[in-house]
From TrEMBL:
PROSITE patterns assigned to the protein according to its UniProt record, in alphabetical order: ALPHA_KINASE
Function of the protein: Protein kinase that recognizes phosphorylation sites in which the surrounding peptides have an alpha-helical conformation. Regulates cardiac development and cardiomyocyte differentiation by negatively regulating Wnt/beta-catenin signaling.
Gene that encodes the chain: Alpk2
Lineage per the UniProt record: Eukaryota, Metazoa, Chordata, Craniata, Vertebrata
Domain of life: Eukaryota
Protein name per Swiss-Prot or TrEMBL: Alpha-protein kinase 2
Cited InterPro entries: a-kinase_dom (IPR004166), Kinase-like_dom_sf (IPR011009)
Origin species: Tychaedon coryphoeus (Karoo scrub-robin)
Primary location: membrane
Localisation: Basolateral cell membrane
GO CC term, one of those recorded: basolateral plasma membrane
């Protein structure tokens, strides 16, 4: 059922978050680490809806820190400490699982997160299948901007492999008039969105 899947996904993400915390917390200057709150499945046989989930109530401003689709740019995730640490958590999981798994939809209050999703490649990862499209993994690879927390954990930039792919596709996707003045501008055009994202800190 959807409810069981929701529990399974959130509690799997929670296990990754614990491993991330164990690695990040001892680092000097890292500070508090995001935590995914546990979610419990309860069975109520007498009820019309026999299965429900129970979790701690989060009080405060609820923020979506990670993007579900590439068109949504959430400034709160880039400018806040919790948001940056969530993006680093995504990068850390991505690297730990060799790009097979990504925790998405990180949202919550402060450093306490809930209602997260997991994207896996089509075949799944170690017997686990996510509940989000694997296109999220591609989007993450394309859009992730490393921050100071990624550096503290020694995570490898995702830029280099992505740029090679872009060069191959960028010429096909641009239907520009064939004048030399326009041609000179093409490489800059292709770079603009990334530069824009990284300079807005």
């Amino acid at each position: 059922s959807v409810v069981t899947q929701e529990c399974y996904v959130q509690n799997t993400a929670r296990e990754y978050a614990k491993l991330y915390a164990a690695e990040a917390e001892p680092l000097e200057g890292f500070g508090e680490v995001p935590e995914i709150i546990p979610i419990f499945l309860i069975h109520r046989p007498a009820n019309n809806i026999p299965y429900a989930t129970v979790e701690e109530e989060l009080v405060g401003e609820f923020v979506k820190y990670s993007v579900k689709d590439g068109k949504e740019v959430n400034f709160l995730r880039r400018d806040s400490e919790a948001g940056q640490k969530c993006c680093t958590f995504q990068h850390w999981v991505y690297e730990k699982t060799n790009g097979n798994l990504l925790v998405t939809d990180l949202q919550g209050v402060g450093m306490k997160l809930t209602d997260v999703g997991i994207a896996t490649l089509a075949k799944g990862y170690k017997g686990f299948k996510g509940n989000c499209s694997f296109s999220f993994i591609e989007q993450f690879r394309a859009l992730h901007q490393c921050n100071e927390y990624c550096e503290m954990l020694g995570l490898k930039s995702l830029r280099t492999t992505h740029q090679k792919q872009r060069k191959a596709t960028s010429t096909k996707s641009k239907n520009l008039p064939n004048s030399s003045a326009v041609k000179k501008m093409v490489p800059k055009k292709a770079r603009e969105p990334r530069d824009f994202i990284s300079s807005e800190h």
